[in-house]
Amino acid sequence: METVALLILIIAAVGIALVAVVAGLVATGRRKPKPLPNTHTDVLGTPPADPDAPPVELSSPPATIEPDAEAVPVLERPEGTASRLVRLRQRLAGSQGTLGRGLLALLSRDRLDEDTWESIEDTLLTADIGVAPTQELVGRLRDRLRVEGSGSEARAVLREELLALVDPTMDRRLQVSGADGKPGVVLVVGVNGAGKTTTVGKIARILVAEDRSVVLGAADTFRAAAVEQLATWGERVGVEVVRGPEGTDPASVAFEAVKDGTEREVDTVIVDTAGRLQNKAGLMDELGKVKRVIEKQAPVTEVLLVLDATTGQNGMIQARVFSEVVDVTGIVLTKLDGSAKGGIVVAVQRELGVPVKLVGLGEGADDLAPFDAEAFVDALLG
Fold it and tell me: Which one is the CATH code of 184-373: 3.40.50.300, 2.60.40.10, 3.40.366.10, 3.30.450.20?
């Protein structure tokens, strides 16, 4: 009996020990390990807190994701007139100086014979001054240098005569202001390819630089590229562009542009027109209609004809056609910086009887400047 009882006690003890071992294993499996101190720096969020770990500082504040906001365009500040005139002198001196230097070299000879005067005439004609102005200039130079002599006086005499030919007395101010609360209305005409639409955008920049409010009318509706180009020019300086679907009646777009400008009380409305020259009758009808429709809202204060200075006599033909169609009040010569034929300034003024008011000096956004007769002549002479 004692043996049996002892055996039962041993079995019971073993059983209790087994139960304790199993219970310990279960408890160990459920216990979470103690987290290690967090030494990782996360710039996108805050690390989990651990009471037993030392505090961890972030290297930069947590980033936050902001809701999308509408981008505000940064408007350009166009260049003022004063600095444009400085560049006018510099660039004209570089491109037009050949003419002046050639003339001075001929006029400074000790003896001015007939061969020399013929060379002077050829030089002037090559520069697109035109036959009549060339003959007039040569005649005046002959008379003066016969009395005053050549050599050192030649430059002063030539400057005076060239300046008289360019005519500094012409009124070259842009008529961009209206009356009786109406905006000034500038109608810009010219063939496609002369830089007409670009010129409209550049004129807007000149006016914005003078703190004038402007509206542009994209009335060259048959060229989608022209409309888009003008819209881009307007966006860059915060100027509204009135436009219509491709093929819209140009007169209706011009009307809406002037109406919008009048209602908003802006200073100036500039209207870009179509530049097709298939036939004069069609051009006359279209431009005539545009002008008539505009003037139901406000008078047209300026009609600017844009000409490519490099086209020479072809540009003169265009000038004649447009002057017969509309009452041109001023001329814009583009690409003058790239041509040594600056005499077209004289020729076109003589042909139309109206002044060159603006000249294009390059491809930059602010490479358009008011024409200055003295600066032009000084540039010719180098």
Answer: 3.40.50.300
